[in-house]
Amino acid sequence: MRQMMTQQKVYGERDSTYQAAGGQTGIRKLVDCFFDIMGSDPSYQTIYDWHPADREESRDKLALFLCGWMGGPRPFVEKYGSISIPAVHQHLQVTELERDLWLECMGRALHQQDYPLALTEYLLRQLFIPAERIRQACMGS
Ligand code: HEM
User: Fold this and answer.
1) Distance 88 CA to ligand 1 centre (A)
2) In a structure prediction context, what are the per-residue pLDDT tens digits for the chain, which is 141 residues long?
3) Is residue 67 part of a domain?
4) Which atom of ligand 1 is nearest to the CA of 76?
5) With a 6 A CB cut-off, is 59 part of the ligand 1 pocket?
6) Whole-angstrom Cα distance, residue 71 to residue 90?
């Protein structure tokens, strides 16, 4: 039984998720793909248009944030300072619709990476947590 469990890839321990996602290079690739999809598919136009005109900075911020969020180094904090994810979204009208659009777009970007399916599924499950907290902060419940 123990042998069976150790054969399964465990994400979420120390920096295992960060490493499996390809470190900062892999995460930047993921985030570039995410923004490219968001900017090219009209289904995501609302959430894409919400971003400031300098989408290069948005890409940089999300990629650097996700490095720490995945258990790796925290370059976001070093470059931009500390952050509260629900608070920085609170001025937006994130309902279930926009939350799910964001997650769907991220899901598409994840599937385009050379990631094991287990990693993609793990990340999507984990990303639901901050995405839902954002919705709650925006909707006040
Ligand atoms: C729930 C759906 C989400 C939507 C619709 C959304 C949308 C946005 C938008 C429009 C901005 C730019 C805000 C502005 O500068 O006025 C932003 C910034 C950001 N988002 Fe999201 N987001 C979502 C979920 C997430 C999640 C789940 C994460 C992290 C796990 C995240 C991380 C960030 C970061 C790090 C920034 C940069 C904040 C800053 O300017 O310092 N977002 N998001």
Assistant:
1) 7
2) 454 444 467 899 999 999 999 999 999 999 999 999 999 999 999 999 999 999 999 999 999 999 999 999 999 999 999 999 999 999 999 999 999 999 999 999 999 999 999 999 999 999 999 999 999 999 998
3) yes
4) 35
5) no
6) 25
DSSP code string of 21-64:
TTHHHHHHHHHHHHHHHHHH-GGGHHHHHHS-S-HHHHHHHHHH
Is 50 a pocket residue for ligand 1 (Cβ < 6 Å)?
yes
**24 within some domain:** yes
CA–centroid distance, residue 58 to ligand 1 (Å): 8
Query: For residue 123, what are the contacts with CB-CB under 8 A and spacing of at least 6?
Result: 17, 21, 106, 110
Give the separation between CA 85 and CA 62, rounded to whole angstroms: 11
- How far apart are alpha carbons 6 and 130 in whole angstroms? 29
Residue 110 lies in a domain: yes
Identify the domain containing residue 106 by its residue range: 14-139
